[in-house]
Amino acid sequence: MSNLALVSIFCPDRTGLIAAIAGRLYDLGANLGDTTFAVLGGGAEFTAVCELPVGVTPATVEEDLRGLSELAGAKLTVAPFDLADVHGPSARITHRIEIAGEDSPGLVARLAEAFHEFGANIVRLNSERIPGTAGAQYVTRISVWIPEAKADACLATVANTAAQMKLTFRVTSA
Question: Which end of the chain has fewer CB atoms surrounding its CB within 10 Å, N or C?
C-alpha cells in the first residue's frame, strides 16, 4: 500500500524555494507526483502529492520541512492524501486558452460557468495583473479538458464571452 501525502506550503516568495523544498523531499526519499508552484502577489504557493517511503510519516516530513530557513514564516501542512494519485481522463488537457485585456470583474466566474455548461473540466487556471504604461492588463490562462463532441461549441461560447467583455481570446490544442 502506498503512503501518500499532500504537501501544502504558502510563504513569502524568494529565490531557491523549489530547490530547497524538492531537495529536502528527495533527501527524505519522497517521490513527487502532481506538483504545482505559483507566485501569488508577494507570496509563493507549493503543493505536491508525494509518495513517502516506508517509515516516513506526514508528520516527519512536516517537521523536517519546517527546519528549512527558506520556509521561515511559512504556512505549511503535510497530511495523508486519501485520493487517487493518478488523475482520470477529464484531467488530461485538451486545450490551452489565454484571455487578456483590461481587468473585468466576474471574468473567471463567467468563464467557469461556460466550461461547466459544456461538461468541461478546468485542469489549471492562472490569472495575473500585469502593470503597463497604458494601465494594467489582466491575463488569464486556462488549461482545460473539453469533451471532443462539445469542443467547438464550448470554445465558441468562451470566445464570445471574452469578446463581450472586450478581451482578446487565443486557444491552442494540446
Answer: N
